[in-house]
Amino acid sequence: MTTTAPGSVTADVAALADLTATELLARFAAGTATPSQAVEACLTRIATTDDAYNAVLTLLADRARRQAAESDARWAAGTARALEGVPFGLKDIVATADIRTTGGSSLYAEHVPTESAALAGRLEQAGGVLLAKLSTFEFACGGAVNRTFGPTRNPWDLQRTTGGSSSGSGAAVALGQVPLAIGTDTGGSIRIPSAFCGLSGLKPTYGRVPRHGVMGLSWTLDHAGPMARSVADCALMLDVIAGADPRDATSLPGPAVPFADSLTREVAGMRVARSRGFLEEQMHPAVAAAYETALAELAGLGVELVDVELPTFDLAAVTSWFIIYAEMLSLHEEHFGLIEQRDEMGASLFGASPFVSAADYLRALRLRPAFQRELETAMTGCDALVTPAMTALPPLIDVEMVSDLGDHSEPWLDVACRTNVPFNLTGNPALVFPSGLVDGMPVALQLVGHPLDEATLFALGHAYQQATAHHLHRPPVLG
Amino acid sequence: MTPAFPPSASAELPEPADGAIPAHAGVRSRYHVLVVLMGIGFGLTAPFTALLVVALGGAAQWAAYVVASMGLSLLAVDFFGTRFVPRLGPRMALCGASVVFGIGSLLSAVTTSWVLVGLARVLQGFGAALFMGGGVQIAARLVRPESRGGAIGIFNAAWFAGVALGPLGGGLIAAMRPGADGLRMLFAVCAALNLLSAVVAWFLAPRLAPGPRPRLGLPRGLGMHGARRWSVLVLAAVGQAIRSGLAMTLVPLLGEQLGMGWVPLGIALFALSLTDVAAMHFGSRFSDRRGRALPLAGALAWGAVATLALAFVVDSPLGLTLGALAIGVTVGASWTLPVAMTVDLATDQETGLAAYRIASDIGMLAGGVLAGEGLAAGGMTGALLATAAVLVASTALVLTVGETRRRPSTTVRATPDSHRVPCVQNPLEDSMPMPDLDGFAVIAANQDIALSPERLAQAHATHARFRPDLERLRALPLSYTEPVTEPAHGPAWIANGGRS
Prior knowledge:
The complex is a heterodimer.
Chain A: H1 11-14, H2 21-30, H3 35-53, E1 56-59, H4 61-77, E2 87-91, H5 118-125, E3 129-134, E4 153-154, E5 157-161, H6 167-175, E6 180-185, H7 191-197, E7 200-203, E8 223-228, H8 231-241, E9 271-274, H9 285-299, E10 304-307, H10 314-332, H11 344-352, H12 358-379, E11 384-388, E12 402-404, E13 409-411, H13 412-418, H14 421-426, E14 430-438, E15 441-449, H15 454-467
Chain B: H1 25-43, H2 49-55, H3 60-68, H4 70-80, H5 90-110, H6 114-141, H7 148-174, H8 179-204, H9 227-257, H10 262-290, H11 293-312, H12 317-345, H13 349-401, H14 437-446, H15 453-474, H16 489-495
Helix pairs in contact in B: 1-7, 1-8, 2-3, 2-6, 2-8, 3-6, 3-9, 3-13, 4-6, 4-13, 5-6, 5-8, 6-7, 7-8, 7-10, 9-12, 9-13, 10-12, 11-12, 11-13, 12-13
């Protein structure tokens, strides 16, 4: 393998952009590639794709090259760390010291934090190379049309949204601009773009990843987690970012055993619950058919699918929204006078926030344990719960997007959050991964685990990816 | 006779303060008296327009076009005035409606040109649109939001009563002079009655707090996607087409062909309006309980049979009156059931109803035009035959669309150790209505928050959408005697691995 001048790479080096983080680390360890080459490959991919897709808000090429050179030296010296030399991106609501962190908003367009978020620091301390700050819906709650930075487009279809709010993370990983990215998830913002872009993404257990330095939307429901092109990479990244941090009182300890070790666990004989009610009852017919096919593939692993009931889970969604509204107002109150400078969708959500009474907000918080117990009861005796990660294909980009459910359409946010936000409320971990293609667009499964049991999700997801090739499909634009 | 305008339930509801001041019964009663009076004024000439055109020398075909021309003004208002008409104050809306409609009637009374009658009909349409858009809005604002459905029902009943009485009086008035003179006198009386209504409206119109500023502009997105929704809009259009083409054009012209005088014809049209109103009234209630599709399909099939009878069997005034009675069922059902189906399938009620209104307006235009074309091509029998064919095709379309009524959500009673989140009816709901727009403005002001009227209305619509689920949440029992440490319980459950 050879290198050339920065910005110009050979075909062999360029192909590094298509490797997963796990594969890159293997190549670094074998000496068949270097972090500098990987960074150049990703920079080249960004140069050739980002004008069309708009995933990158702030490119950190020079900084990344310096870090990659240090990683090259570490690999040579035998002191490589867990993510040594692996390029990654951060959703631009994650604070980075001395690097602008915009929140996807004109209000913070020139904001430069003095301290990095806890998870950003951990990624760099593990040898990861921060390559870019990535696009996001404004303050993680705007719409697909970011009025300041423009829309991020889906690598599978330029006319469609990546979903959000981790829109740039979804597009960047799918395009091979970075193998790993951080997303955040208050109502599905890791899982929706992962599903829409054909990625694996994990919303960890609430508190598993400290949120220090991450712009908040709703502290009761906010999560941060990995987005990657394989379940194995999600485990790899979570091992680095999980664990308590004194600057986040809600954060929880990391795992006793590395998540990566769980990938090889036997899954045959595991019981996976499915609830045919609220979580499955409104789906586009083609997506529903693909979902049943994927469940058959899951069962083919020796997994037993068990029907369970979540009879009142539909109320989890409205409960979540009342918490989001109240906490959003509390967090963003100082910006309220600037509401008309925000994206239309974000402004419409923010505008509704002052009208949640204190009693309704506290009622929602008090009901949270009831939903947790309902889910606990349903999952008793099961290792996980499976749901569709998406019930409709990604909608066409518009200020007011709608999702096509076959016989009718609904506002996209209602549709997209339907299978996601309940698990933000309960705090359970949830993993999404590709499970097929419908009309040339990826569709995905979601596995929900018991709190603190991401390991089982990784085992199931990895086994599925070992048995199928859905996660290997790449957007047509990449050839 | 049959009301010539899209149903009042289709008027845009959420913009102005809804139920800002639950008015006392006297205010509502006076308002309903006014609505009956205006209904009579609007209904007086509706079925006689086609006859006036013919009496002034216009062909039957052009009579149909003139009847349909009101759809132009309704369409214009529904396209550009969705945020204008409902926001007008009561006096402006009601007085304006009567004055504009009255001027249109006066124009028809003084002219000897049937072309001008067509233009006058368009003017009448603007008056009708003002009334339909503004009148129902006022009715809804006189009560608390949870009573709005009933208020609209009473408004409709008052309005339909007036409209139904109109043609009976119209026939009597027109019979006082022969031919076109009698009809022109009828339009003159109609103009006078509407101007009188305007004066009465000035004094009886309720006083309400001003809502958001009226704005002209295109409607917001209509949110109608998918074959079923479009099919329902087609059915809505067919309903209005049947009204304008059959009930308001072909039936009166057939009566004239049979040599009926204005009084017998007025009685026949009154009979049609009776079953029309009855079908609207009872059909809505029935469909809420038993579904929409089968009643609508049945009504359309029934209409096809009745129309064929008009074409091939009826040859006497009594036969026409009986036929009109039968057709009224179809006309009424095809008005109210498609609007219910539209709301069933709409992304949200506001946009669904806007789409419904536009489809209805197009249907009204198309119905008259098609009736005219049918008359020109195949005479009365041909036109009726084509109408029957449309009704049969519509029946098939209804069966294709299938049932749209949403089943009532089930509730689960609380049990002490149930893992389910328990749901019960909220006994406090009657005393805790959702704040209206003015209330929202106060809530915002109390937090030193300023929102534009549009943003405030948007927030109100958002919370209105959440309202049913919020009511269910509020109905969940929460313990008073147990210690409350939220938000501690949620994270504690998580930290314990999801074990209670």
